[in-house]
Amino acid sequence: MAKRLTQNLNSAYLEAANRLRPSRARQRIVAFVESFDDIAFWRTVLDDYEDENRYFEIKLPSRKNLGKGKRLALMNLMNADQLGGSMIACVDADYDYLLQDTYEESRFISQSPYVIHTFVYAIENYQCWAPSLHKAVVTATLNDRPVLNYEEFLREYSQIVWPLFVWNIWCYRHEKYKSFTMMDFCGFIGFHAISPYHPEDALAHVRRRVNQKIAWLQRRFPEGKGSYPTLRNELQERFGITPDTTYLYIQGHTLFDNVVLPLLEPICAQLRKEREREIKTLAMHAKQRQCELSSYQHSVMAIDTVLKKSTAFKGAPPMAKVRERIESLLQVSNHQTTPTQKQPIVA
Description:
This protein is mainly α and about 350 residues long.
């Protein structure tokens, strides 16, 4: 049975279709993303590059199932005939950005001009960008009282996990990852609970676990004594990762679910209780108290929802690399085809 035409859709097909459209019609660029959660993020990013000449249509990788992940988003696109100026992929960098040529998928993501990646581990890392956290808490609680210096907390946290993070990349670079997988690494750097009054206790606990694992790795892989410093310097000089910003490059779900939420949720609960006590104290009578409390409770939001809807990540330094990649892609796309210049279609 012949395949449907849409099953053979590729960039060349879209470019030809763009040429057949009216001269003033905008060029359509299809952007495949990994899952539903990524659509809003990439729409926010790509919005800045839409104009009278082009627009982006963001799609999921498959209409047949709800499978997620970068591999699914790319597996039908890793053919040069399918990707192009009118069909791109927008994905999380994961470790592939740091592994570069170590694996085929890493090489493809790093080198293909038609793959836009996050340049941090995932979109969740942008959602947890430290300078945006105070505003997120205020939005979630409608209470502007500062409880914790979030930037300082994540800076210290990053410094603690940095040496173990380098070891984890070392294991993947040297194909030793079975001895220390990413999930193993994540198991050492997460929190079960954090007291807003004594966050230093949680940091001290992570520090002890990290130091114990580093000692084990040093014994297990003595050959790393020479190559570890080289990799550490490369991560800083080539990729711009510093001990202060490690949190942007660890697994996004671990950062979101096991670091930032355990930190912010008790703070938000505390700030909401403060605001509710204030309303109860200032209310002149029971009816006013009930109305004000009801209004307040309907206005606050769950902190995880606020983080996922935030667009503050656009100010994060790694976003400059994302924008540079998009601008390079658009230069290629404009060279291949423009909606204002029709080209003859050869039969």
